[in-house]
Amino acid sequence: MGISNRCTGFNLLNYCVQKNILKDLTATHIQRRDYNGDNIDSQLFNYKQSWIFEISWNNNNKKEKFIGCGKSKKDATNLVLHLAEESILKLL
After folding, report:
1. Given this model, what pLDDT does residue 68 score?
2. What pLDDT, on the 0 to 100 scale, is given for residue 61?
3. Class (C level, CATH) for 25-91
4. 71 secondary structure, DSSP code
5. In Å, what is the CA distance from 58 to each residue of 21, 62, 76?
6. Which of 47, 70, 71 is nearest to 82 (CA)?
7. Which letter does DSSP use for residue 41 in this model?
8. DSSP character for 73?
9. What is the pTM of this model?
10. In this predicted model, what pLDDT tens digit does every residue of 14-49 receive, in sequence order?
11. Do 21 and 91 touch, CB atoms closer than 8 A?
12. Distance between CA 32 and CA 54 in Å, rounded?
């Protein structure tokens, strides 16, 4: 039995962690004022109090990486998981 179509966002990430689907998974929250990476295409990127969430994993020796910026940790995580959802579902 696979996963249901309702399994999205945090639930999908949790499922992948439990089943060890995403190899070498890294997930990081960084407050914007502490971020030294490339610019992110987001209106919130200019605000020092915003949060950046970055998630990456290896897929057949190719690193997949998604990054986004939100007004809170939760918003940033939701945004990035929404962006990464299609790539994650291809692995299932």
Report:
1. 94
2. 87
3. alpha beta
4. S
5. 10, 5, 21
6. 70
7. S
8. H
9. 0.86
10. 998 898 888 999 999 999 999 998 888 889 998 999
11. yes
12. 12
CA–CA distance, 78 with 56 (Å, rounded to integer): 15
Helix H or strand E encompassing 57 = strand 51-59
- Which helix or strand (DSSP H or E) is residue 68 part of? strand 62-70
For the record, the structure tokens of 28 come out as 């990081």
Query: What are the tens digits of pLDDT across the range 60-86?
Result: 889 999 999 999 999 999 999 999 999
Provide the 8-state DSSP code for 6. T
Q: Side chain identity at 17, as an amino acid letter?
A: V
Residue labelled with tokens 């997930």? 27
Question: Which residues are registered as beta bridge partners of 43?
Answer: none
Q: What is the CA radius of gyration of the chain?
A: 14
Location of structure tokens 């499922």: 15
- Contact criterion met (CB below 8 Å) for 71 and 44: yes
Residues in the chain: 92
**Could you tell me the residue ranges of all domains in the chain?**
25-91
